[in-house]
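Lab notebook, bench 4. The sequencing result for the construct came back, and we need a structural model before the next group meeting so we can plan mutations. Quick request posted to the team channel:

Model the 3D structure of this chain.
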Amino acid sequence: MEMTIVLNQRRREATVSGIGGTDIQGEALLKDALLSIMQPKTITAGEILYYEGDDVEAIYYVKSGRIKMTKMSEDGKQIILSFMHAGDLLGEFGGVDGEAYGQGAEVVESGVVGVIMMNDLEKLLSENGNIALEFIRWMGTMQRITQLKLRDLLMNGKAGALASMLVRASNSYGKATPEGILIMKKLNHADLAEMIGATRENVTKTLSGWKDQGIIEVTQGKILIRELKELHEICGCPSNHACSSKICRL
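Done. Here's the predicted structure in token form:
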């Protein structure tokens, strides 16, 4: 699918694939193959699909709803790594017995997922080289998303991590307005704190400072980014902002 994103009145276009950032033909090939072996499952908000450390039994294709991927920090805090939406795959595949999930998966919005059992997936990939290649590309994209988020959390402090989350939110939910980029999904301070492993008080203080500086504004509970460039500088984004929206996303 094609998605056009407008940031700070400048037009950027990106080809975004729902499954792992493959090209359109590759995405269709992989999706059709996976649909043939998946079983539908209704999911409910608050349900845990799997915990970090559980044995890998299946991967999941999101048909509808929203799922948050989480990881526990060394001090026991839960950090949100990403949100998975319709068209996304989640889970892990190491190709060996005893593989464990490196992240947890919790349903945020009710919907339906397709459950793909590991033995069925292994059989499919062993018999179809082209599909196996597309699946490897998907795994590479998912790994890069996780690595970049962990980099943002570790390299530029809590303010940098928070700035990164707002940049990602602008890619996932942003709408161009004359005043800047309005993030259409409401993100409360507790949610943002969980995304970066900080306290809600720390997030509130940082956002208030950015509001005073004119970097952001809050309107009807939604965050308006007035100065995207400032957030890029705070979180240490590359000067050419080379990450595509399928990588730089919530």
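Helices lie at 24-35, 118-127, 129-155, 157-173, 189-196, 200-212, 228-235.
Will bring this to the meeting.
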